[in-house]
Amino acid sequence: MIRIVTLLSAVTLFAVPLAHAQNASSLHPVLETALSRPSITVDERDWRFIVTMTNEDGAMVGQFDGTRPEGARWELVSPTLDELSDMQAGMWTGLQEPDDDDEDSGLFFSADDSDIAPGSLELAEETADHLVFSFRPDFEGEEAAMAEHVRGALTVAREDASVTRLRMWAPESFKPHFAVRLTQFDMVQEYTAIDGLPAPVLTHLRQSISGRAAFQSFDQSFELAFSEIEFLGGAVDVEVD
After folding, report:
1. Fewer Cβ atoms within 10 Å of its own Cβ: the N or the C terminal residue of the chain?
2. Domain residue ranges of the chain, discontinuous segments joined by +
């Protein structure tokens, strides 16, 4: 439902069930609980929220209301359409594009859609409240060549075994295409557990992509913040393997 448009031809960095693909005997029990939750399928009509996009051009605020008719579910709150920068206008257009799938996990965290290579999760860091697991990204299609340059980290809360953060980044500059060099690539998704909902919900997304393409420098850095989130669906479709 949420599309992130970048310079790399509308790349969305976002399958096998991970809990089954990963050797169960090697899984940390907290991670096993987090990944063994069944997949959730919802319709975009089940959501209502505010999204604020911030970049070097300022802030853009939009509202999504799934109860409205198709084609009228997105409303630009501020600024006006004429006041949007080129990047903001591109983001606004991208947000409104329909997904290829009629149904997906929406704002819910989905392990099956997280681009984590099966069998690659390893405990990397422990704190009193969280566990951080490193992983190898598993991209498909045009993004597949990026996987060898990108690292991943999944953060899980100890108390309720809920995913709180997913990060993918490139430790060094690289060329995903012969005419493009990325000097920075960093994407962070933050999730929050909300009472009454079956899975953590995406509340923040930060993406920093900068480099050079066709001898021109570019910076595609921005942040999305989701607020006033309402899940209107009540019961959800749960896929059990």
Report:
1. C
2. 23-229
